[in-house]
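quick q for whoever's on today - can somebody do inverse folding on this one?? i tried earlier but teh output was garbage lol. tokens:
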């Protein structure tokens, strides 16, 4: 009888041990465990700024340069220093599709007043060179450091040219110059879609001959005038569309 009781007690203890440790010894479940069962703390990281989008803006600054001239009738030549303030508007588009590289195109139009008097001997009293506006159409190539975008730029320059003799006794020669421009700048984010920029441009205008309007009929030759400008300006751009 005692032997039977010992065997019964031992059997009951073994069954209780197996039941208590069944979850520990069982193999893992065949079905996948949802990721929500293992919560991960998210890092507080600000998104990288994307420069892609269409924008409009305003700009202003100054132009400093010279008007090189030469006179066919008397063989004289020289340079006249000029300067002017300028103000205008900008439209453009940036695309940031290759990491930090940003490629864009920009068109701007600025009003300014360049006025030079050319002291060629055949110009009685003096010949005049004037230019009232400037426009550029350029490509921009930048490398973004998040909210800062240094860039190089180059393209076409367009500007008006007026030539005559002071008092316009022989009329006025009007033309439009198409030439080249190149420069560099730095654009940075002010807030959201609003950015500001600092920019330098070298602008070359076509050397143009002034004939009848500069008394070529009497003097026997033309007066050639050009314009080279160094432009420093600041601007504000507002992005209308973004990716």
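ok took a stab at it. sequence:
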């Amino acid at each position: 009888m005692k032997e039977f009781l010992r065997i019964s007690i031992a059997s009951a203890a073994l069954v209780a041990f197996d039941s208590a440790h069944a979850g520990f010894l069982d193999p893992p479940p065949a079905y996948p465990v949802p990721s929500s069962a293992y919560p991960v703390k998210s890092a507080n990281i600000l998104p990288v700024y994307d420069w892609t989008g269409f924008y409009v803006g305003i700009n202003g600054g100054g132009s400093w340069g010279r008007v090189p001239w030469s006179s066919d009738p008397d063989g004289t030549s020289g340079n006249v220093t000029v300067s002017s303030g300028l103000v205008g508007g900008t439209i453009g588009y940036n695309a940031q599709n290759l990491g930090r590289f940003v490629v864009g195109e920009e068109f701007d139009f600025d009003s300014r007043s360049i006025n030079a008097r050319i002291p060629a001997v055949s110009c009685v009293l003096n010949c005049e060179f004037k230019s009232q506006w400037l426009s550029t159409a350029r490509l921009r190539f930048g490398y973004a450091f998040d909210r800062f975008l240094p860039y190089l730029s180059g393209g076409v320059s367009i500007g008006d040219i007026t030539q005559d003799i002071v008092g316009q006794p022989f009329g006025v020669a009007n033309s439009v110059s198409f030439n080249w421009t190149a420069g560099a700048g730095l654009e940075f984010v002010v807030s959201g879609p609003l950015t500001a920029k600092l920019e330098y441009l070298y602008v070359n205008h076509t050397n143009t001959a002034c004939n009848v309007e500069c008394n070529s009929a009497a003097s026997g030759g033309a007066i050639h005038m050009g314009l080279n400008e160094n432009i420093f300006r600041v601007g504000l751009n507002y992005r209308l569309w973004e990716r």
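fwiw The chain has three helices and eight strands. also Residues 53 and 242 are 4 Å apart (CA to CA). so keep that in mind when u check it
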